[in-house]
Amino acid sequence: MTMRVVLDTEFGSGERFAAARAQGGRLHYIAIAAALPPAAAVQDAQLRDAWPLNVPGFHRVILNDEVTLDLLVGAVDAVLPQVAARVDAFCLSADVAPAWARSLAKLAVQGATLHARAADEALVWALTAAGFVCRIAADADAGRRAVAPDIEAVYHSRKPQPAAQAAPVRRAVVIGAGLAGSSAAQRLCARGWQVTLIERHAHPAQEASGNLAGIFMPLLSKDDNIPTRLSRAAYLFALREWRRMGGVGTAFLGADCGVLQLARDERHAKVQQDALAQWNYPPQYARWADAQEASALIDAPTPHGGWLFAQGGWARPSSLCEAMLAACGERLQRVFHTEALDLLRVDDEWQVRGADGALIAQAPTVILASGAGAGQIAQAAELPLAKLRGQVTHLSVDAAAVPPLLPPLLTLVVCREAYVTPPSGGIVCAGATYDNDDDPALRASSQQENLARLAEIIPGDAVAALAYTAPLAGRVGFRVAAPDRLPLAGALPDYPNAGRLEFLSDVPRHPGLHCLLGYASRGLIWAPLMAELLVSQLENTPPPLEAALVDALDPGRFLLKQRRRAQ
């Protein structure tokens, strides 16, 4: 089905969005707003339930498989250059500057329509120069025409326009059934793709995504850097998507119980408070909990307080993966207990083969989402990914044990250099280490490291005694991280065929081969948004992030940096 893309420079009360939605069909509505009104002011009940918090950046709201709303919070002159879309219709507010005309033309498809409210002569001339054929709107108020009538326009560029990209063949193979692969399968199936999911284990989420509890929370910084902006968008998108599934603790195991990130010392507490003051976040997103409140929350004295993320919490990744794969329905074919080791491009399709050379599956599109296992695939072997060992300690809540085991029984997640979760299924999780070795076995030294950090976070004799009384128990997993600690989401670079490179657009790619890798310890929040980004790239639809962040995630960024240094 053809999708209409609308760009509105003033969302307002959402009346134009409601009117566009009422026309039916598949709709992608991009709306720019300096600030978002509170959810209570939104009349549409479905939209009100999914309404984002008023924080800067791009907010993708998926209302259903036919209607997507992107709310872009910020000044138009800052936001517009970050939009990457092919727009069919523009709705311009009265404050649109003539300088924006060329930016609008770059987004317009041939024949795109435009309605500008109260357009002055300078804007009309600028739009005309950019390729829009303008006239006074038929329904413009005649009494206002002498001052600033509404303008209607159609885009007719004399310059050659890029050919419309052909619709993709909606068949894909996803390799890896952890958070990255399960999220990709779920989003692809929701868009009508047929997906073959290959996993070397008998069940999903058995490696890096196999911990009993993963933590979801954003990053904060005073300068609002790329990791901060990306984590904010990913965290809030994940929360919205999980609510669409039925909610944390209902659709899958976990709890949005809140996360308290304690300050390390007095200096760090000042840094944390300065970051909050700089951005004036809504308290539902992040607020300061002083030492008195923080001590009450953890039932132990803590001297400095910390950030409180009220909507953060923990989730069991395997449960989330199962829920996402169940939502795929009949469009998903599971090929488990099978390891993909070789890819060969034959007649515009990728053949996926195992160790014995036997064909496992084939499709025009393949997505590598196998974490540390991706390095065994020749086409991904040169990606600069590091494998980091992480040991989590499991503390049993067993007062009957001799001696009794008394881990902290918290009502929220608490973290600093390490983290500790509320009990679930009789287990408290504490961790995790960052080790540079390949040892898959539990070891006492890593447990002691976890318990020492736990005692620093939650002081008290009972917690300190765990270092001597807790049996060796837990889990070892191997995270995969890029040098810049950002995920890789997009088309896989073709290292052998790369020559001189100046821009990301110069990086050669393997046709139809993509990756979702490098999630490190933030897979819970990275996975939903990275999958949505990749699907938008596969379907040539507007991405859910500003252009600068999309570039920061491009798997070709390391090859580009490498060649720039060598040139």
TrEMBL record:
This is FAD-dependent 5-carboxymethylaminomethyl-2-thiouridine(34) oxidoreductase MnmC. InterPro entries: FAD-dep_OxRdtase, FAD/NAD-bd_sf, SAM-dependent_MTases_sf, tRNA_S-uridine_synth_MnmC_C. GO terms for biological process: methylation. Keywords: Cytoplasm, FAD, Flavoprotein, Methyltransferase, Multifunctional enzyme, Oxidoreductase, S-adenosyl-L-methionine, Transferase, tRNA processing. GO terms for molecular function: tRNA (5-methylaminomethyl-2-thiouridylate)(34)-methyltransferase activity. Its EC number is 2.1.1.61. PANTHER family: SARCOSINE DEHYDROGENASE-RELATED, TRNA 5-METHYLAMINOMETHYL-2-THIOURIDINE BIOSYNTHESIS BIFUNCTIONAL PROTEIN MNMC. Residues 172-535 form the FAD dependent oxidoreductase domain. It is an enzyme of class 2 (transferase).
